[in-house]
Amino acid sequence: MIVAADEGITRPIVEALAMSASVRLAANASAMRRVLRSRGIDLLILDADLPGEDAISLCRSVRAVSMVAIIVLVRAGDQDALIAALEAGADDSFARTTGLREIQARIHSLLRRASFGAAALSLRTAMRFNGWTIDPHVRLLRDPLNIAVELTAAEFDLLWAFCRNQGQAISRERLLALTHAGTANPVERSIDVHVSRLRRKIETDPHHPELIKTIRMGGYLFTPVVEVDL
Length: 230
Known about the structure:
Order of helices and strands: EHEHEHEHEHEEEEHEHHEEE
Distance between the termini: 37 Å
Shape: elongated
Mean pLDDT: 80
Strand content: 15-25%
CATH superfamily of the largest domain: Response regulator
Radius of gyration: 18 Å
Low-confidence stretches: 116-123, 181-186
Strand order of the largest sheet: 2-1-3-4-5
Number of helices: 8
Oligomer: single chain
Largest sheet: 5 strands, parallel
Number of strands: 13
């Protein structure tokens, strides 16, 4: 479903998906919610400049109750809006001016990844490391005292990626692919920001991290032993 008031924005996306998917349109957040309540949606595409409601807040509210794949469209060159969308829980975010072929490739890639992720989650329960528990079904992290720790969507996705790749050096590019479905290169630097915030929440001393190690010229390494929580 595409949520945008400007037909000039929706037309190229409808063209990109017309041959492979059924597309529904909504001009505002209220119309979007009616559709979400009445039928299953595989992908939600939000225009950042929605009338009447901030699309970033809308993205955050949808993500709080649904794992549906979300893309947020932003103005060309607006890196702040792009990063804000990812932090609010969007799986990808790109400029409205993106070309037709790239739109097709990115949407199809995201849908494949969402399908794979749903299958994987159906076979996997929560994971534990150093007394912490991370549960992908309810997107919840609990500390060794069983107290819930608030994470942004991006921080949760990043920690889940670390747990699934424990003991492996992971490049920033790989982390970006694992957490944001291949978002464009300029947002790669946001990985460092998310890692820093995540360290403040799970490390005993964020300035001398033991769980998430920085690998010189190589990204990051998650050091704890990770076990499936049975």
